[in-house]
Design goal:
alpha/beta; single chain; ten-stranded mixed β-sheet; 11 helices; 31% strand; 25% helix; 19 strands
Amino acid sequence: MQTILLLEDGNIFEGEGFGAAGTVTGEVVFHTGMTGYQEILTDPSYKGQMVTMTYPHIGNTGVNPDDNESAKPHAGALIVREYNRVPSNHRSSGTLDGYMKTHGVMGLHQIDTRELTRHIREKGSMMGILSSEGMPVPELKKRLDAHPKIIGLDLVKEVTSPAETIWKAAADQAWYYEKFGPPTRKRSVAAYDFGIKRNILRLLTGMGMEVTVFPASAPAEAVIGRNFDGVFLSNGPGDPEAVVYAAEAVKKLATWKPVFGICLGHQILGLAFGAHTYKLKFGHHGSNHPVKNPSGDVEITSQNHNFAVEAGSAEKAGFEITHLNLNDGTVEGMRHRDLPAFSVQYHPEASPGPHDSLYLFREFIKMMDMGNR
C-alpha cells in the first residue's frame, strides 16, 4: 500500500504501508528503544500517538501473547524504517503485520526515520495524519486541522477500567519471587487505573501485594475506609491537567494512606497539591534515559511521557525533588515533605528495559509497613 504521512507543518513522508489500511490522526513522537515494539503498541500511555521507532529493523521477533501490556494496542500507528516480514524467535506466534491487521493498527515503512526524528527534535512533537486511502493532500490537511490537539485532552477516560476489579496474579510469576524473595506477608493495594500496564500489576502482585484496580474516575470515598495498606497511581495518556477528577481524589487519598505514583500518576500527585505541569518539546520515549537519584547514583531508565512536573511549583506544593533527568534537568521523581507520598516520572517496571529502578517497589512496601504500624 502506498501510504502518506502529513505533518501539521506541511512536511510529507511517503512510503509503504503495512498492518491495517485506512486513515489515522495522532501526535507523532519517536522512541529510541531497540526492542519492545509489542509493549509499545499495547501501552495505553501511547493512546492518541503515532510512534516512530529510531531502530531501523522492526518486526524481527514477531509477536506473542505474553508481551502485551494491555488487552489490545492503543498506539494509533507504528512508523519504521524497514518492517521485517519474516520473524525469527522461539517465542513468536505470529507476525507484527498480522497482529496490526487484526487490531486495525496502521503501519508505515520505507521512509527515512532519521530525517523524521531529526525534524521532531528540532520542531517538536506535532500532529500528523497517516493515510493509505489515496486522499489528496488538501483533504488530509483539512482532516488534520479538525482533529483535537493533545494539550487539554483527557485520554484517560478512553483507556481506564470500566469497573472495580481484583487483579489475578498470572501463573508465570515465579521469577519475581526469585528476584525479590518470597513476600513476608500480603499487603492490599488500591491501584488507580489511568492506563495501567500489565507489568506494573505483575510486579505488585509478584512482590506479595493483593491489588484491586479502580477506574480513574473513582472518588476517594470509594477507597477510603476499606482495608487497603496503600494506594498506587498508574501511568496513562494525554494531558494530566485534563484529569481534574483524579487530582481531587488523590489529594484526599494521600492524607489517608501511603501513595506511590508512576508517570501520569506522578504528574497527578503533583497537581493534587498545587504543582503545575507543562508539555515537553518532544517528550521522553526510550529505554536509555539517565536519571540521578537521591543517593547520587545514576539509573538508566525507561521513559514514555510528553508532559513534566514544573520543579519550582512542586517545591512550593510541599515536595522535595528526588530524581533529575541528566539529559535536560527535568523532574523525574519527588517525595512529599509531610505525607507518605512519592512518585517517579519514568517507568521502573518497564520490560523490556533496564531494571535499575525496581527498588522503588520495595520503598513502597516499606512505606506501607511504616504507615500501618
